Amino acid sequence: MSIVEPIERTGRGKSRAPARLTAVAGFLVTVITTFLGLLAVTFFIGRVIPVDPVLAIVGDRAPAHLVERTREELGLNRPLIEQFAIYVKNAATGEFGRSVMTSNPVMTDIRRFFPATIELASLGTLIGALLGVPLGVLAAVRRGSIIDQIVRVIGLVGYSVPIFWLGLIALLIFYARLGWTAGPGRIDVVYEYTFTPITGLYLLDAAWQRNWGAFRDIFRHIVLPASLLGYFSLAYISRMTRSFMLAELQQEYIVAARAKGLSETRIIWFHALRNAAVPLVTVIALSYAGLLEGSVLTETVFAWPGLGLYITNSLLNADMNAVLGGTIIIGSVFIGINLLSDLIYRTLDPRTRSQ
């Protein structure tokens, strides 16, 4: 071994260190900038809407001195830039004020309602991924066939039909007519106090405590809204899977694999899908984030006590602290999942690490 080789390796290590630091610094700048942009949007939306947060707290008939004192306590009499600085500081510490509707700190309400949304969106994404990926692969392999047309129609309907209409039809058929599922809500009163919520994920909590009666009731409540969200997730995932697989099946390594005599099943499921799985991670992650923020109508139709229903009821009651706090939390989760999926993509695909 020559002396030159260790020196070259040391030089490469030193040259990679600044590049990694630059990448980490760029990542942090992206996170901070995106979060500040989210805070700026929510802050100015809260200032331009025709709802006075002071009157929402003290009431329309409150005396003038009480209105002014409350406005001063909330800092709403200060310059706008100073209000924004206070807003950013409070948001960074999780302080969003008190909810007018529940009289609780907004963060307390979010901790109470958000697990229901996470449980619903997680099950919906699981359904969408387990069904959407195989359907997309099948449509790509059978391109132009009747199977491909059916999968594309399923995706088109999933994009086109309003979710609230489909939810009402599903309730009418599977709950009111057939009685296969439970009605609106998350759990019947009979089972509500038979187990102790620990994580807020009722299915997990009931299974952990082996309360199978409550587990079955919770499952009967969640299966319909989760299937509805899963259908919309399926429409997106199957469409993207089909596109990725069509691109992979045209690559030269597929031709080489067929020339070597590998079975079509192995080529499709162990070679083409493996390469298509890298961008699919990002698609599934973004689908999950979309269900977390876009389940408002589903939660409203099914009276699901999640964060979406909480924000909707708060908006109807002019409870802007709760609306803006919930919006910031959902936006932050969306940003986090987006950045995490980008990190996973770069980890799985070595070609993107140098970019």
Automatic annotation (TrEMBL):
CC annotations in GO: plasma membrane
Family: Belongs to the binding-protein-dependent transport system permease family.
Keyword Isomerase belongs to the record: no
Keyword line: Cell membrane, Membrane, Transmembrane, Transmembrane helix, Transport
A GO molecular-function annotation: dipeptide transmembrane transporter activity
Residue ranges of domain ABC transmembrane type-1 in the record: 114-341
Protein's name in the database: ABC transporter permease
Protein's cellular compartments: Cell membrane
Tree of life domain: Bacteria
Pfam families attached to this UniProt entry: BPD_transp_1, BPD_transp_1_N
Keyword Transmembrane assigned: yes
TM helices/strands, residue ranges: 21-45, 120-141, 153-176, 218-237, 268-291, 322-345
